[in-house]
Structure formats: C-alpha cells, structure tokens
C-alpha cells in the first residue's frame, strides 16, 4: 500500500509532466504560426494546394536585365533557373541587391506568376568581404 508521501509525490510528478507537455505544445504551436516558409519559384508552380493569403518567403536569383525601377516601385524577376516569378516591391533595396545574385523576398502571392513583396533581403556567398578603407575613401 502506498503511503501519503508517495501518493503526493506521484500527484506532483503528474502535474509537472502535464504542465511541461502544455508548455511544449504552446511553444510548438506559436512557432508554427510565426514561421515564414522559404519557397523557390518551381515549388510554387508545383504546389497544387497553395494558400495565396499566407505570407511566404520567395527565394532565388534575380534574372539578368529584369530590374525595372520607376518612382514608386521596383520590379524584378526571381528565378531558380527553371521557373520565374515577377516581383513588385515598394521601398529601398539592400546594397547587395544586384542582377544574377541571390535574393529573398517576403510577402504574398497575387497568383503563381506575380508576387507582392513587403521586404527584400539580399543574399551573399560565404566569401563576402566588406569594402576596404581605400574603396571607401574613393567615394
């Protein structure tokens, strides 16, 4: 027969395990809701159950000769060398944003061929070096 102390310890252990499970569940649920999924143009074209209302990250390379700048917005094409998506962005782009360089755009799809970005991030390779002092003095 279990004594009062043992029963109390079992109850406390059960409450502790249940609380730990609830905390873990809450953290996983919150992370799942706040994640932005990175997709390439090919993945977007192949996805049959695409949710156009959900914010996503679109990544790939900026197509050569595709950047068009006017007073209010910049338009460019993101490609993964198989499929292409036209991106429209209102705002300033990072200094590393160039043709044939990696880019990630955050926003929503209008359809599978047009993306409205609210944020643009430029990617660089692992060999990136900041400009030297001599280059900065020339400017």
Please give a structural write-up.
This protein is an alpha+beta fold and 139 residues long. The chain has two domains: 1-35; 38-122, Nucleic acid-binding proteins (OB fold (Dihydrolipoamide Acetyltransferase, E2P), Beta Barrel). It has three helices and seven strands.
Structural class assignment? alpha+beta
In what order do the strands lie side by side in the largest sheet?
A: 2-4-5-7-6
CATH architecture of the largest domain: Beta Barrel
Q: Care to count the β-strands?
A: 7
CATH superfamily of the largest domain: Nucleic acid-binding proteins
Q: Radius of gyration from the CA trace? A: 24 Å
CATH class of the largest domain: Mainly Beta
Count of individual helical segments:
3
CATH fold call of the largest domain:
OB fold (Dihydrolipoamide Acetyltransferase, E2P)
Order of helices and strands: HEHEEEEEEH
In angstroms, what separates the terminal alpha carbons?
85 Å
Summarize the entry for a quick read.
By secondary structure, the chain is of the alpha+beta class.
Labels describing this entry:
OB fold (Dihydrolipoamide Acetyltransferase, E2P); elongated; 2 domains; five-stranded mixed beta barrel; 139 residues; alpha+beta
Topology (SSEs and partners):
Blueprint: H1 4-34, E1 38-39, H2 41-46, E2 56-62, E3 68-69, E4 74-79, E5 84-89, E6 102-111, E7 114-122, H3 133-138
Parallel strand pairs: 1-2, 5-7
Antiparallel strand pairs: 2-4, 2-6, 3-4, 4-5, 6-7
């Amino acid at each position: 027969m279990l004594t009062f102390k043992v029963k109390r310890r079992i109850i406390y252990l059960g409450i502790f395990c249940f609380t730990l499970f609830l905390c873990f569940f809450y953290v996983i649920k919150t992370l799942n809701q706040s994640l932005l999924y990175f997709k390439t143009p090919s993945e977007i074209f192949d996805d049959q159950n695409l949710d156009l209302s959900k914010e996503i990250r679109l990544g790939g390379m900026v197509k050569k000769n595709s950047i068009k700048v006017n007073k209010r917005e910049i338009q460019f094409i993101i490609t993964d060398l198989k499929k292409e998506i036209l991106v429209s962005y209102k705002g300033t782009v990072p200094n590393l944003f160039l043709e044939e360089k990696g880019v990630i755009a955050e926003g929503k799809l209008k359809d599978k061929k047009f993306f409205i970005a609210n944020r643009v991030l430029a990617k660089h390779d692992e060999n990136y070096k900041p400009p030297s002092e001599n280059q900065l003095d020339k400017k």
